[in-house]
């Protein structure tokens, strides 16, 4: 039965309701792609730490390893529209940002050369920026799944990509 009451506006729309993350893709695809890139970067960082001749502290190993596990969880969660999996990973990402800030503040910057300080500052800035990008992509996905904008049923409406139609 269809109600043709002109006084009540139609609340459902076939138009895209979610927004484009970084102007290039939907929130699900952004969560998957950003986490995939972050996963590769963490694996490379883990390999780099293993090959480095200077000793690496235990917290670095733990942080990299846990991040790898959580990026895998985000990818799985976004593929399955599993909000809890992505939320838990988002909490870890925020904890990792806090740990990065604490580690940077506690580091003995006086014991390194000016060039090492500059390289360290650039490294911390890049890691922080990337982690914030991950928080944005995962947070957007969580918001849209929570509001019912992004789901298995609505993905065909919400799907967007400027470069690939996966």
Specify the biggest β-sheet: none
Helix proportion: 55-70%
Q: Based on DSSP secondary structure assignment, what is the total number of beta strands?
A: 0
**Total helix count?**
5
Structural class: mainly alpha
Beta-strand percentage range: under 5%
The coarse overall form would be elongated
Output mean pLDDT.
83
Instruction: Quote the distance from N terminus to C terminus.
Output: 36 Å
Please provide the ordered H/E string of secondary-structure elements: HHHHH
| Poorly predicted runs | none
Radius of gyration based on Cα positions: 20 Å
Walk me through the structure.
With 166 residues, the chain is an all-alpha fold. Helices cover 66% and strands 0% of the residues. The chain has 5 helices and no strands. The protein has helices at residues 27-51, 58-80, 83-106, 114-146, 155-158. Helix 1 packs antiparallel against helix 4, helix 2 packs antiparallel against helix 3 and helix 3 packs antiparallel against helix 4 (114-146). It is elongated. The two termini are 36 Å apart.
């Amino acid at each position: 039965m269809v109600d043709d009451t002109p006084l009540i506006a139609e609340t459902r729309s076939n138009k895209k309701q979610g927004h484009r993350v970084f102007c290039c893709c939907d929130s699900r695809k952004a969560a998957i792609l950003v986490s995939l890139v972050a996963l590769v970067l963490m694996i490379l960082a883990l390999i780099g730490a293993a090959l480095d001749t200077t000793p690496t502290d235990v917290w670095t190993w733990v942080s990299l390893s846990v991040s790898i596990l959580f990026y895998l969880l985000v990818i799985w969660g976004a593929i399955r529209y599993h909000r809890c999996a992505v939320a838990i990973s988002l909490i870890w990402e925020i904890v990792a940002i806090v740990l990065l800030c604490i580690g940077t503040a506690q580091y003995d910057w006086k014991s390194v050369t000016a060039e090492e300080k500059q390289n360290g500052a650039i490294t911390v800035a890049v890691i922080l920026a990337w982690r914030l990008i991950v928080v944005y992509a995962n947070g957007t996905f969580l918001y849209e799944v929570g509001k019912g904008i992004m789901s298995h049923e609505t993905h065909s409406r919400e799907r967007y990509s400027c470069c690939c139609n996966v």
